[in-house]
């Protein structure tokens, strides 16, 4: 008798917790960060201004542009809070360091510094972020692909 009472108390509590969690999960969906998808313009774009060959452009777009440009390629789960908040933070932070969509507007010194930072990040395997490639394995770069990108970066003459 006593035992049965206990079980139903725990069952009841579990049900309340489940219902509350669902309410919270639905509730937080109403706070939506703005989408990082601006009106498409390639005027200031890095790959276009530096005339990246097609294969290199494809690699960099796939691996870096969702965080470091004005055009994020969202997946359906990126829209679901709290993942959407995490994604939004990453994009804001990434763009504050480097935004490929604003390349043409950077001055000569910023461009040079950024090129050398990109090489360093690639060489040290820091980018794309590991937390990103877990969810987007196709963004991971092979040694050979990294080498191709770096070789091309060295050919850029900054103006
Ligand atoms: C998931 C988002 C994401 C992706 C994808 C990503 N980055 Fe980043 N990147 C960040 C964040 C966040 C920072 C700032 C914090 C840090 O340095 O870890 C950053 C910083 C940088 C910096 C500045 C480092 C410094 O010393 O200031 C460079 C350069 C960079 N990333 C290059 C790249 C390149 C090149 C790629 C593609 C191969 C790439 N990133 C892909 C999120 C990303």
Automatic annotation (TrEMBL):
Residue ranges of the TM segments: 16-32
Domain of life where this protein originates: Bacteria
A Pfam family that the UniProt record links to this protein: Haem_bd
Keyword list, A-Z: Membrane, Transmembrane, Transmembrane helix
InterPro entries found in the cross-reference section: Haem-bd (IPR025992)
Chain ranges of the Haem-binding domain: 22-157
Protein name: Cytochrome C
Source organism of this protein record: Leptobacterium flavescens
